[in-house]
Amino acid sequence: MKLNILGNCKQLNYYGLHPKFNPIKFVSTAYFSKCNVHKNGKDYRLAKNVQPTLHDFMKYEKRKHLDVVTHGSNTPYTSHSDLHANNRKVYFDVHGCQMNVSDTEIVWSILKSAGFEKTEVLNDADIVLIMTCAIREGAENKIWNKLVNNFKSLKQKSSRQPNKTPLKIGVLGCMAERLKHTLLEKEQIVDVVAGPDSYRDLPRLLALTYNDQTAINVLLSLDETYADVMPVRLNEGSKSAFVSIMRGCDNMCSYCIVPFTRGRERSRPVQSIVNEVQHLVDLGVKEVTLLGQNVNSYQDLSTQSYALNGQKTETVKGFKTVYKPKKRGLNFADLLDKLSAAHSNLRIRFTSPHPKDFPDEKTTAYRHYKDDVSYEVKQKRVDILSNQFRTDAEKLNNAQIGSTQLILVEGESKRSKEYLAGRNDGNTKVIIPKIDLQQEEAGSDSVSPISPGDYVVVKITGASSQVLKGIPLYHTTLARYNRREEEANHHSMIV
Questions:
Q1: Residue ranges of the MTTase N-terminal domain (predicted)?
Q2: C-alpha 385: how far from its chain's center?
Q3: 11-217 falls under which CATH superfamily?
Q4: What share of the chain is helix, strand, coil (3-state, %, to 5)?
Q5: If we measure between CA atoms, which residue out of 179, 182, 183, 226 comes closest to residue 201?
Q6: Which of 72, 95, 137, 364 has the greatest number of CB atoms lying within 10 Å of its CB?
Q7: Residue 155 to residues 10, 108, 151, 159, 353: CA-CA distances in angstroms?
């Protein structure tokens, strides 16, 4: 158990009375006082519910049973009114991968339950929360530049307005985990730092900033998956959604920082994933992307796991992998079986950033590597690779001209309101004209406009390195289209 104590003491051991938690170690490195005396003359050192002393904790230790702070409960020295946001407005600035989008929706769910409001207008915000990425140096530099060049001046401006709540800045995610105290000390812009496993603690961390305190919680967890938190969508109109099925990573690749910023690998129970997907379907979502650093490693060992009617999931004949199959619980294939059986008209994607099937012996060269290549040469090589990628991508896309494909319509094209954009099974963007379409059923004369969330069959007529262009043929459903494809494949095998 960890309890955070405000103050300057580095470490304090206290031997309590509870047999299960004896001794108790209090570690105090999490909070720093920006200033004890505010410019208005008020002394916050003696403010109510601020700066608890050891006496505050000893008072609770005298109880027969030690009160352990659990998720959703208040710390002993923070009242419920302190934790309530009183409609403070939060602005989210999201960077990085799809997992960060999913995490932001978890954060918004937690804060919304605590009384916060969300705003899309930066100047209206009382709090700015930056969901960060630490995978590449460029991503961190971009966030630092934004902090120094944008948010710093905005914060200074708000502090000069007498009737406006001083703007608070929070840094969340991987960069928060990696840089920790540096974020609080450098430029002194940031008020709250929260790692990927401490989002439940955000209402309390933000409450501490009300009295010019800075707060940090970057503890990594062995079991936190936010399985009981129903994310609140940031883009309510989108027909696609991200669903996180696991967190962390156990593959300690030499070039990757994820295991150190997101912790050890752990999976959500199948039940919680099924519940979230059902919730999304009820909201009108037509496509979900299952997220995990390495979804092949998904393993549900919970007691709530589904028994799939005694059936054993089999992999495709000839499938090879360097990963050993999970021998206990439900694996990723079991999860896909369960979701696809429950939602025949839901397109299910999954993404896994980890470079699977790379033998370990090919990742040890870094131990003997001397970086003697200049920046100019590196940049030139990147340009060569990028140009080659675009050339190859255009060839692959051109090969699809003349084919018939199913797309899920996402909305209007960014370049023209006369066109719609969707994605095919390969996640390639397809641009089609906005017209009325006939239904697939034979003999149907009724036509209807194409709307976001519609499945439409299109014929590909053009291509570039990034997008396909097509002509819409008719409306359909995912189940009907797949059934038709299976019948066509069966017929071709007979012939």
A1: 88-211
A2: 29
A3: Methylthiotransferase, N-terminal domain (3.40.50.12160)
A4: 35, 20, 45
A5: 226
A6: 95
A7: 30, 22, 6, 6, 36
The residue type at 277: V
Give 13's strand partners: 25
For residue 23, whether the previous peptide bond is cis, meaning omega lies within 30 degrees of 0, is yes
Strand partners, 351: 291
Q: Name the amino acid, one letter, at 48.
A: K
Q: At what angle do helices 332-342 and 270-282 cross, to 10 degrees?
A: 30
Which of 83, 84, 180, 165 lies closest to 127, judged by CA? 165
What does each C-alpha distance from 231 to 186, 256, 335, 382, 426 come to in angstroms? 32, 27, 20, 38, 26
Nearest to 192 by CA among 209, 210, 167: 209
What phi and psi values does residue 153 have, to the nearest 5 degrees? -65, -35
pLDDT tens string for the chain (495 positions)?
A: 444 444 434 334 333 434 344 444 343 334 444 444 444 443 333 333 344 444 544 444 443 333 333 344 444 444 545 556 678 999 999 998 899 999 999 999 999 999 999 999 998 999 999 999 887 788 888 999 999 888 988 888 888 887 777 899 999 999 988 888 888 888 789 999 999 999 999 999 999 988 888 999 999 999 999 999 999 999 988 999 999 999 999 888 877 888 888 999 999 999 999 999 999 999 999 999 999 988 888 999 876 555 555 556 566 666 566 556 666 788 888 899 999 888 888 999 987 665 555 555 445 565 667 778 899 999 999 999 999 999 999 999 999 999 999 999 999 999 999 999 999 999 999 999 999 998 876 566 788 999 999 999 999 999 999 999 999 999 999 988 888 888 887 777 776
CA distance 226 to 268: 8
Residue 433's H or E segment, with its range, is strand 429-433
| Distance of alpha carbon 407 from alpha carbon 432, whole angstroms | 10
Amino acid at 190: V
CA distance 120 to 142: 21
Could you name the CATH architecture of 404-494?
Beta Barrel (2.40)
> 240-362: which CATH topology?
Transcription Regulator spoIIAA (3.30.750)
Give the C-alpha distances (Å, rounded to integers) separating 343 from 21, 79, 141, 289. Answer: 47, 44, 42, 14
- CA 228, CA 131: separation in Å to the nearest integer? 21
Q: What H or E segment, with its residue span, contains residue 56? A: helix 54-61
- Do the beta carbons of residue 246 and residue 39 sit within 8 Å? no
Q: Which long-range contacts (CB under 8 A, 24 or more apart) does 414-421 make?
A: 420/450
